[in-house]
Amino acid sequence: MPDITHVREPRLLALDQLLGRRSVGPLQDPAPEGTDLDLILDAGLRAPDHGRLRPWRFVVIRGDARLAFGDKLGEAAAARDPANAAALAERYRAWVRRTPMLIAVGAVVRPGNIPEIEQVLSAGAAAMNMLNALHMLGYGGMWVTGPNTYDATVNRLLGFEAPSRLVGFLTAGTPVTSTAPVPARPDRAAHVAEWRAEQSLAP
Fold first, then answer.
1. Residue 61: strand pairing partners
2. Domains of the chain
3. Residues facing 144 on adjacent strands
4. Residues 102, 66: contact at Cβ < 8 Å?
5. How do the pLDDT tens digits run along the chain, 203 residues long?
């Protein structure tokens, strides 16, 4: 009989993939498309959602549209910092040119009984789901924020008017190298505590 002691249970194989996820910077074509892209977006739509508000909005930026978007980011950066306009504009154009696909992730915030922070956190959970899906399908990606995420002009360009907002951009593509080391996992003991009934809540 074949030795099957080394075979992992399917549920553990899935966890192995999740535990091996890392942010990947240098990306190249191909970016996800077709069924793969649909699966990635669908993963985002499975994020926790208090009140079933479905606050998630994803804007896919790819192909020639990337170049036009890079120009808009350059204009926004120049408006924020006129003294460094040329350098900043080129920096953002170059970033978009070397990124096969961007997915802008935002929350359409609805005032009411559900706190705003929960709606924004739901959009953040959607972003994480999509990053995990990218990794599990063999692509690479990174969650990028920075000044453009918080710029009202960039938000309006992508259809987000306050209180709605971007939570960031996901880069997506194929890793340039498959040999980059996976960062060491943080020490679990430094981040996890177990509350006990006899503990005091006093400061």
1. 102
2. 24-176 (3.40.109.10)
3. 169
4. yes
5. 445 445 667 778 888 888 888 888 899 999 999 999 999 999 999 999 999 999 999 999 999 999 999 999 999 999 999 999 999 999 999 999 999 999 999 999 999 999 999 999 999 999 999 999 999 999 999 999 999 999 999 999 999 999 999 999 999 999 998 766 777 888 999 999 988 888 765 55
d(CA 167, CA 144) in angstroms, rounded, equals: 9
- By the 10 Å C-beta count (0-12 exposed, 13-18 middle, 19+ buried), 148 is classed as buried
Contact yes or no for 130/103 (Cβ under 8 A): yes
Following DSSP, what letter does each residue of the chain receive, concatenated? ----TTPPPHHHHHHHHHHT-----SEESPPP-HHHHHHHHHHHTTS--GGG---EEEEEEETTHHHHHHHHHHHHHHHH-GGGHHHHHHHHHHHHHT-SEEEEEEE----SSS-HHHHHHHHHHHHHHHHHHHHHTT-EEEEE-SGGGG-HHHHHHTT--TTSEEEEEEEEEEES-S-PPPPPPP-GGGT-----TTS----
Which contacts qualify for 88-92: CB closer than 8 Å, 24 or more apart? 92/148
Within 8 A by CB and 6+ apart from 174, the residues are: 27, 28, 29, 30, 31, 100, 138, 139, 140
Whole-prediction pTM value?
0.89
CA distance 96 to 145: 14
Q: Which residues pair with 62 in a beta bridge?
A: 101
